[in-house]
């Protein structure tokens, strides 16, 4: 009987040839795929004009070399001088960077503790621009000139603040009504039902038109760079575009953008999207919010979307949709006015009557239902319930600046916070000790930074947030490289500050465990985590945020100049297509 194994023997030469053939075919397939991919990037018969495409790594406002640049006010001034010579920069926001209030017979200057203001004020100073905002201070009208302008900051005037006046009815309908009872809860997943009234919408439209008139009046030429801020002005970009078609309009949406199904709740969803698409660039904190915006446009407007380039073509105009993570000034100016950490700790402990052996946790924000204040109270409750040895050894100082107090949802939150704090203090408190110190007062930025420097733990437990600059401010304040940041996974800052203790604020038990970890973390681990977070905030500071937008604005303006040159030139050869005729926008 023959040996059947002999039929399985294959000569080595055949195996070698077979392997060579497989490798050759694989290389051919890969080469074909690469060639097809390249061809698909450029339509058949089209060739890109010289310099019209930027490198792949510069897409979506992100440059591979940006992290190597030391971003500062000088960097911004250099960008303006080199890339945007003679460009006028106009900032538009609801909140003003300086408020003048009556105090007896005197006028008191107030700098609001606002993330938006702290981010934009250094930028406007560096650009020597014009800031247009609602003048809500009781003495605001007393200090402006005949054109409603005042030069700021008072000690070193470097830009112009132009105030817009609103009646009580306008403020009620536009700000408290449509913006904060409608758009705010719509965009934040905090389970508060948005309220939409036709009268509020009509007032919102009218106020946006009033601000558009002011922008046009302040523009020195046909091509200003207008930085529109936040959800108060969703209609403003389109209104400016109608009056100043050559303006470069960058709209930054500081809060989350919901998914398209949630956004469909808004009765005027199409008009809001059309208004925002009057922008040259629409910016968000994260790519996730960019994606939600693009999906909303795709669902509700007849438009052309180039997802690869994050660009939307609507009504013959193109808007880029980019992520620009906002940040803070580095180094913070407030640190130069404060003593060292040891003295800050002593002053804060004396002020609030804290014993030396009590570990201090802090929360700092507006009194808002999106910030998760009640949830951090629950986390402390869980800790003290399961680890009673910490009773008398840990306290939470909650700074909650009053906000929108006339709205029912905010009144309810205020009452709930007070009740919850009182309940915990009754159950766990003792003579000379309260686990929760609730302070519902406005604090200056200098006071806030002193509290940061005195804290052992900073709790940022937002239920939903665009970025949350408190997290970055706390990191910037800790030049001693100590302290622990406990950070919500639903805050945009959690995408950058990975060395924080990332928590789910809806899970009180797990957040209580994270709080225990923070309180017992070694100094060396604190130092390692804080060093890395400080590097992130230093490199990705507010000047980089603004510089990225201004560089994108410069690229757009140059492309417009090329478009005009191509449009005015004699007919191009058949294989060259004008940028004006292209259906796709070159990626930034």
UniProtKB/TrEMBL annotation:
Enzyme Commission number(s): 2.4.1.15
Superkingdom of source: Bacteria
Gene3D superfamilies xrefs: Glycogen Phosphorylase B
SUPFAM superfamilies: UDP-Glycosyltransferase/glycogen phosphorylase
A Gene Ontology molecular function term of the record: alpha,alpha-trehalose-phosphate synthase (UDP-forming) activity
Assigned protein family: Belongs to the glycosyltransferase 20 family.
Name of this chain's protein: Alpha,alpha-trehalose-phosphate synthase (UDP-forming)
Source lineage: Bacteria, Pseudomonadati, Pseudomonadota, Alphaproteobacteria, Hyphomicrobiales
